[in-house]
Design goal:
The chain is an alpha+beta fold. Among the domains are: about 190-315, Frizzled cysteine-rich domain (Orthogonal Bundle), CATH 1.10.2000; about 390-495; about 520-760, Trypsin-like serine proteases (Thrombin, subunit H, Beta Barrel). It is built from 16 helices and 30 strands. Strands 9, 10, 11, 12, 13, 14 and 15 form a 7-stranded antiparallel β-sheet that branches. A 7-stranded antiparallel β-sheet has the order 22-21-18-19-20-24-23, with helices on one face. A hairpin with a 2-residue loop joins strand 16 and strand 17. Helix 2 packs across helix 5. The longest helix is centred in the N-terminal third of the chain and has 49 residues, at about 130-180. The relative contact order is 0.06. Mean pLDDT is about 75; it is low at about 1-35, about 40-75, about 85-125, about 465-470 and about 505-515.
């Protein structure tokens, strides 16, 4: 209808009788509701691109409800639409003031046109009222958030499913290898060898008889345990148990045939572990040609290849277990060794970035910083005394006797400076330096002018020791006060390095319980303990004790039947077995000399269990590397009940396959009389009397003892001057720390003459002055 018709209708309505205000309000509201709904439907249809609406249905509440329900169902069944329209999304909430403004326009057509333009023209967005723009912005952000959450849920679900699939794959693989092979019961039997099951060789059936004709699995297990438990205990190769088991109880495949080991497993086992065959006096089960073995990832063709590849991948990732700290890109150290004041890594990374100390400060450990001027001032300021370590040295040599130009550490410049000879007090200051370096006395001092082509020099011979030496700090203070323009150097000869004494800076330390029956030792406390390593991977297997610049004393069973010196590595000055700090020295072996009375025993009840190892190159002594004393004479007998110390890296429990300790541990044990030791052991070994060349030490109730891995290490007792001498060498025992089964040690005083004769025979005699 046109405008005139609308006006006539309004006039006719105005002539009708007046109704109640309530009735009028209802009619007006119904009219407005119907009009608004019809206009809103038209607007929505045009915005969404739809065709013309059916006039009969405009304003019908049932139709609106059906449409709304359909939209709700579609929202519930479909994921959110993430396609962002360029136009402003429609908004169906109409404020009263907006409606009023639009209804004042002239005519319905104009009204519809205005509403269409108001909602659909994107170019006029900025003309929208502020509340409309805010609502529109929030709706867009809400849709983006819904889409993001939707895709995140999908991604996490896929990740979980993928992880579950991997776990199921590995479980099925293990199940297949161990359980699900279709076996020929006439050919394959369940594998029951305990040692192979303990090392999880990952197959459950074996083919018997094996190639040696053996069918009894209990006999095979006894053979493996008695012969190879020692070499397995070294852990020279992770797949060594598979190498041994696959020969004596080979895997049986689905066809009922024995499966050999893979070529790579064979080669690696022989390469890494053959060093220990002579030491433990054993042989491989049979001579094998690894090149003739198959090499395949199919477990029905050969065993071990897949596991070998997994180990190589782990090694290449440089991953440390149990939150260990990666050291030198090749080793792992315990996490509590980081920032503890001791350099365990060659590159010192374990002691870097530990605390924010100033440039003029020095980092001690555990968050402590001190002024650099306090380094080497004669007073330990760090909790561990590291600020007073290695402050002086002699340039030429520091062996049994030391000599050379005296040098002092400059903590500011980080280098060694020559100690100036200006106003040098002879012999007092020379005596003080020698004692600080570990020597008993100084017997010569030479002051030399370094600027002249023919340097002038003054030489002094010392005939007596100074009764009142100067304070340590004065040596460093004088370097600052008197040596600014001096060119005079100090050359000193020191005499008789004192054995059996650790640095005086290691005397005050707190202790932490580390192992059952013992305590962890502090770096530098036992500077004469050395570790033996063998094979290409330098696997630790025994200990020894340094007795001179050239010689190491150890147990003969640590050498076994081995005469070849290749493959041996000896670490000296080491406290933490897995560390390689700057002050650790490595030496190769020149000679291996066992006592002629020693014989290997399958039961490990040794006698004459003592040996000497001659180093290829002599060592220089320092704070972390010093010799222990030998007994004063061959008649020395340690009284029963005397408390002596056992030190080493031995296992904390009796288990052939447990790990050795990473740090030196110490345990105090009393000497047991020989007759009581025989009486106690007679209950277990009635046919193996303990010879008098052995000494026993331990408690009647057990609980404290040496253990596997301590072999070759020393039993240390005190001299009257409180220095340590080696009274025994760890030899054997029954299990570890058992009641009335003390440890058995080689009685070193009984072999003192043999030590002196042997060292002299090989041109490197040990003077009794060192004992």
């Amino acid at each position: 209808m046109d405008v005139n018709d609308q006006n006539n209708i309004d006039d006719e309505q105005s002539t009708q009788p007046n109704l109640s205000s309530t009735s009028n309000d209802i009619q007006i509201n119904q009219k407005q509701f119907t009009s608004l709904n019809s206009k809103q439907q038209a607007m929505t249809t045009k915005i969404n691109g739809g065709g013309a609406t059916d006039d009969d249905n405009v304003g019908d509440p049932s139709i609106i409800n059906q449409s709304t329900n359909a939209k709700i169902e579609s929202i519930q069944l479909k994921p959110p639409s993430c396609k962002m329209s360029s136009n402003l999304p429609p908004h169906h909430h109409i404020r009263g003031d907006d409606t009023h403004e639009l209804e004042n326009t002239s005519g319905a057509d104009n009204f519809k046109s205005s509403r269409r333009s108001y909602y659909s023209d994107s170019s006029d967005r900025t003309k929208l009222p502020i509340h409309q723009r805010i609502v529109a912005y929030l709706r867009v952000k809400s849709r983006l958030l819904s889409c993001s959450l939707y895709f995140l849920v999908i991604f996490l679900s896929l990740a979980v499913l993928f992880s579950i699939a991997i776990v199921i794959y590995h479980l099925l693989t293990i199940y297949y290898h161990r359980q699900t092979i279709s076996i020929d019961t006439d050919s394959c039997v369940p594998m029951k060898v305990t040692l192979c099951q303990k090392f999880n060789v990952q197959y459950a059936y074996t083919k018997l008889p094996n190639r040696f004709g053996q069918t009894d699995q209990s006999i095979i297990n006894d053979k493996l345990t008695s012969t190879y438990s020692t070499i397995l205990g070294t852990k020279c190769y992770t797949l060594l148990p598979l190498f041994l088991c696959s020969q004596l109880v080979p895997r049986c495949n689905s066809s009922g045939h024995a499966v050999p080991m893979c070529k790579q497993v064979c080669k690696e086992s022989i390469h890494r572990c053959s060093f220990f065959l002579d030491i433990f006096d054993i042989e491989w089960p049979d001579e094998m040609d690894c090149d003739k073995l198959p090499d395949s990832n199919d477990p029905d063709i050969c065993v071990g290849n897949r596991r070998s590849m997994e180990l190589n991948q782990l090694a290449n990732r440089h991953i440390c277990k149990e939150n260990g700290f990666r050291c030198d890109h090749t080793r792992c150290i315990p996490p509590n060794w980081k920032c503890d004041g001791y350099m365990d890594c060659n590159d010192s990374m374990d002691e870097k970035h530990c605390n924010e100390c100033r440039d003029d400060q020095f980092y001690c450990s555990h968050g402590v910083c001190i002024n650099r001027s306090n380094i080497c001032d004669g007073k330990p300021d760090c909790p561990d005394g590291r600020d007073e370590r290695q402050c002086f040295r002699l340039s030429d040599s520091m062996g049994l006797n030391g000599q050379g130009k005296l040098q002092v550490w400059n903590p500011i410049l980080g280098k060694w400076d020559e100690m100036c000879g200006e106003d040098w007090q002879v012999p007092e200051q020379s005596e003080q330096v020698c004692r600080l370096l570990g020597y008993q006395s100084s017997n010569e001092t030479r002051l030399q002018d370094e600027t002249s082509d023919l340097p002038g020099q003054r030489q002094f011979h010392h005939h007596q020791r100074s009764p009142k030496p100067l304070r340590f700090s004065s040596l460093l203070n004088r370097q600052e006060d008197k040596c600014r323009d001096s060119d005079t150097s100090v050359h000193i000869k020191c005499h008789h390095f004192e054995c059996g004494r650790s640095s005086h800076f290691h005397q005050r330390r707190r202790r932490n319980t580390r192992i059952v029956g013992g305590e962890e030792s502090y770096p530098g406390k036992w500077p004469w303990l050395v570790s033996f390593h063998g094979g290409p991977a330098e696997v630790f297997f025994c200990a020894g004790v340094l007795i001179s610049e050239w010689w190491v004393l150890t147990a003969a069973h640590c050498i076994g039947t081995k005469n070849n010196t290749s493959g041996w590595t000896i670490n000296l000055g080491v406290t933490r077995r897995t560390s390689s700090p700057l002050f650790v020295r490595q030496r190769q072996v020149s000679k291996l000399i066992k006592h002629p009375g020693f014989q290997m025993s399958i039961d490990y009840y040794y006698s004459d269990d003592i040996a000497l190892v001659l180093l290829k190159d002599k060592v220089e002594f320092d704070e972390f590397l010093r010799p222990v004393c030998l007994p004063a004479n061959s008649s020395v007998e340690v009284a029963s009940g005397t408390k002596c110390m056992v030190i080493g890296w031995g296992k904390k429990i009796h288990d052939d396959y447990a790990d050795y300790q990473s740090a030196i541990h110490e345990v105090e044990v009393p000497i047991v009389t020989h007759w009581k030791c025989i009486q106690w052991y007679a209950k277990q070994l009635p046919y193996h009397p303990i010879p008098t060349t052995m000494v026993c030490a331990g408690y009647e109730q057990g609980k404290k003892d040496a253990c596997q891995g301590d072999s070759g290490g020393p039993l240390l007792c005190n001299n009257q001057d409180q220095s340590w001498f080696v009274a025994g060498i760890v030899s054997w025992g029954i299990n570890c720390a058992q009641p009335q089964l003390p440890g058995i040690y080689t009685n070193v005083p009984k072999y003192l003459k043999w030590i002196q004769t042997t060292t002299s025979k090989h041109g490197k005699p040990i003077s009794m002055d060192t004992s």
